[in-house]
Write a structure and sequence with these properties.
- There is one protein chain.
- By secondary structure, the protein is of the alpha+beta class.
- It has a domain of 103 residues: Immunoglobulin-like, CATH 2.60.40.1830.
- 16% of the residues lie in helices and 22% in strands.
- Strands 1-3-4-11 form a 4-stranded antiparallel beta sheet, with no helix packed on it. A 4-stranded antiparallel beta sheet has the order 6-9-8-7, with no helix packed on it.
- The longest helix has 23 residues.
Length: 187
Amino acid sequence: MKNPFRGARYANVTATLALVVALGGTGYAAATIGTKDIKNNAVTSAKIKNKGVLTKDLKDGGVSSLKIKDDGVRPRDVADIQMHDLTLLNGWSAYPGLTAQVGIDAEGVVHLRGGVTQNGGFNGVIATLPEGFRPSETVYVATNLLAAAGPARLNITTGGTLMVQVGAPATDAQAQGFTSITTSFVP
């Protein structure tokens, strides 16, 4: 049988030994570094590749709005909310250039977006929110009307009724001219 070390040079042996130590050492380090070993602020967004942290990587409740610093998540960091067009009632229609939509984000917050206008006689009921987008108790939210008239509010009931309610000196005609439905609430 031939001697496997015959002709081996010091440089070859040293390189092989260095490779074994390097590979073994990296495996050991990766297996033994835990959360407590990482200093605060050592892992920054610049060190995380795009789509490097996925929803499946986070435990339930692991990230909440209470755990995010002000300006910690910018609009460009968040996937768009899937918005759905609302079916408008009682002569209400989308204000030109706007749509009337509803969506829900990953935190369970319902978002209404858009503006509406109404032709004909005034009826404050604008739409009925689909199930899954309705609040557990009636929500009252201040809103804007045509020419910043006010006061006015949106009422969103547990049955999903979305309506505008106008108070003096604002008029029903100003609500009909334009009512913003852009708001958010926790169902």
